[in-house]
Amino acid sequence: LELVFATNNAHKLEEVQAIVGDKFVLKSLSDIGCQDDIPETGVTFKENAKQKTDYLVDKYGLYCFGDDSGLEIDALNGEPGVYSARYSGTRDMEKNIEFVLEKLGDNPNRTARFKTVISLYFNEQQHFFEGAIEGKIIKERKGEKGFGYDPIFIPNGYDKTFAEMSSEEKNAISHRAIAVSKLAEFLKNY
Ligand code: ITT
């Protein structure tokens, strides 16, 4: 069975393909010849994820899934949230991290979580799968691995940041892994 994954990130596709198994052949946006800039204008991860699948269903009528993720910091009222990729006004993650650290300053409340929501359109039905991991924001960057806000996030129960973990270690516990394994569990029944 073919299923479109609304991403152009080959790394993400490969990772999710491995979890989903070979019963489903995942196709990226470029695999189906879609070069459109799919709108992401929602105010929640769920809305943004659904915008991706709605777009593909409307335009191509294909079964598909798409995800949206980000970081929610309690002391910043849940920001950067859906604005995680351009919180400081640019896509430069150095600047985005700096912006978060400045906003938080010495605030002792450092609790935060990464979230992923996956929207799936399959067999004429809409489904959502969510994953979250709780943790805290530290005061300065630690670690070189991973991406995004990984250098300033320590998951609960650990004493190192996501950026200090191997990709295997992070992928075993991450928000995205949790959501994807729920998707895989659902698809297993087909
Ligand atoms: P696509 O929509 O093209 O897949 P994206 O960069 O928008 O790529 P996401 O929606 O998954 O990817 O994530 C949005 C932002 O949230 C991302 O740019 C990071 O800044 C942050 N983020 C998401 N997951 C993260 C993770 O595992 N570690 C660190 N930062 C993450």
UniProtKB/TrEMBL annotation:
* Residues the record lists as binding substrate: T7, N8, N9, A10, H11, K12, S69, F147, G148, Y149, D150, K170, H175, R176
What keywords were assigned to this record?
A: Hydrolase, Magnesium, Metal-binding, Nucleotide metabolism, Nucleotide-binding
UniProt remark on cofactor binding = Binds 1 Mg(2+) ion per subunit.
UniProt cross-references to Pfam families, sorted A to Z? Ham1p_like
Please state the span of the N-terminal signal peptide per the UniProt entry: none
**InterPro entries, from UniProt?**
dITP/XTP_pyrophosphatase, ITPase-like_fam, RdgB/HAM1
According to UniProt, the reaction catalysed is: XTP + H2O = XMP + diphosphate + H(+); ITP + H2O = IMP + diphosphate + H(+); dITP + H2O = dIMP + diphosphate + H(+)
Needed cofactors, names only, are:
Mg(2+)
Q: Coiled-coil stretches, from where to where?
A: none
The protein's matches in CDD domains, at most eight in alphabetical order, are given as:
HAM1
What is the active site of this protein?
Answer: D68 (proton acceptor)
Q: Where does Mg(2+) bind?
A: D68
**What EC number(s) does this enzyme carry?**
3.6.1.66
Subunit structure as annotated in this protein's UniProt entry: Homodimer.
Q: Which NCBIfam families match?
A: PRK14823.1, RdgB/HAM1 family non-canonical purine NTP pyrophosphatase
Q: What family is reported?
A: Belongs to the HAM1 NTPase family.
Biological role stated in the UniProt entry: Pyrophosphatase that catalyzes the hydrolysis of nucleoside triphosphates to their monophosphate derivatives, with a high preference for the non-canonical purine nucleotides XTP (xanthosine triphosphate), dITP (deoxyinosine triphosphate) and ITP. Seems to function as a house-cleaning enzyme that removes non-canonical purine nucleotides from the nucleotide pool, thus preventing their incorporation into DNA/RNA and avoiding chromosomal lesions.
Show the HAMAP family listed in the entry: Non_canon_purine_NTPase (MF_01405)
Query: Which protein are we looking at?
Result: dITP/XTP pyrophosphatase
Query: Which organism encodes this protein?
Result: Sphingobacterium litopenaei
